[in-house]
Amino acid sequence: MAGEPESLDRDESLARRRHRHWYDRLIMLSDGVFAISMTLLALDIRAPAAGRLEDLWAALAPQLDAYTLSFLVISVYWLAHRRFMAMILTVDAPITVVNLVMLGLVGLLPAATRLAHASGPLPSHMLIYGALVVAIAIALAVLWGYAALAPGRVSPEVGLAERWFLFALILIAPPLFLVITSVLRGPPPGTVPLLLAALFLVGWRMRQWVTRRLARPAAAP
Prior knowledge:
By secondary structure, this protein is an all-alpha fold. Helices cover 76% and strands 0% of the residues.
């Protein structure tokens, strides 16, 4: 009929349209929170008004170190969230609520980064920062654990062994990283971000190898 939107699909049920709408809006909100959190990290970098190049670098190096570390942390969580949402078929109220909790914790990372590195990496400040990083991992693990075990939430192509492996990986990797980095005492600027990047690349390749092997038995039938 003239005047009606061409994109309107009258054959799609209201329930299916609602679930698709929830899924798309949740991903849009999640990507926006991750992007804004990354951007806010850069706004906290403050250079001294004047001085020699050595003084400028001495003032900027800790800030750039903190920026790079938190940028990598947010990037790793965004990649994990993207991977999980690609396997989740539909979202419901529990998935939405847990996802919002996870996004609320991600939004606190710029403030935690500023607190942990404003007056030097004090033990109490770094403890708060580390607790926040672990809390995000727990929220993301709860999100995936519920979706992986609830019927019809995850694609049937993802086997049970692969689901449990991804759950354990997102739950164990952040605390393991914090334990490794806590061993370093006064590392030079850039050491911790480079260590995180190296661990991520190694873990990424190991995850690909394990998931391929776990997917073979599930795909065989």
